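Customer escalation, tier 2.

The customer says the design service returned an amino acid string that "doesn't look like it belongs to this structure." They asked us to rerun it and document both sides in this ticket. The original structure tokens are below, unchanged.
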């Protein structure tokens, strides 16, 4: 079995993020991610949670965590105001200006279904980021 190198993983993640504008979209509870077939935003845009809009991510950073042998993707916390919807996951993707070439990075489950009624929909990003790529 080979070894993935942390610096190479970080370089590749940074290159993916550099393709455009990193975004977060809340997804409908009926959406089931398919890592094998969902490649571009156009593949899943119809499953965006009703009443929500795409959020441009700010303070996007990738960090090598050598202690845990991984590369972490972190951003500032996100929120949408005056929203009525239901969601239990969100997708991270890179907006290239064309939905058919805007790659999906990840879909992250939320611990419980959020159902604001004319309220705020917010995600407090874990101190270690949205996700980590682990080198084993």
């Amino acid at each position: 079995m080979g070894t993935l190198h942390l610096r190479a993983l970080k370089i590749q993640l940074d290159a993916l993020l550099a393709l455009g504008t990193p975004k977060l979209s809340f997804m409908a509870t009926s959406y089931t991610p398919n890592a094998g077939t969902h490649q571009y935003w156009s593949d899943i845009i119809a499953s965006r949670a009703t009443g929500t809009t795409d959020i441009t991510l700010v303070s996007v950073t990738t960090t090598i965590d050598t202690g845990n042998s991984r590369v972490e993707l972190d951003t500032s916390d996100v929120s949408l105001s005056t929203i009525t919807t239901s969601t239990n996951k969100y997708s991270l993707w890179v907006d290239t200006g064309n939905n058919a070439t805007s790659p999906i990075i990840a879909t992250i489950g939320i611990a419980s279904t959020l159902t604001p009624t004319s309220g705020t929909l917010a995600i407090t990003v874990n101190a270690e980021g949205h996700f980590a790529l682990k080198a084993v």
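Tier 2 assessment: The sequence is consistent with the input. The longest strand covers residues 104-114. The mean pLDDT is 95. Sent an explanation to the customer and offered a walkthrough call.
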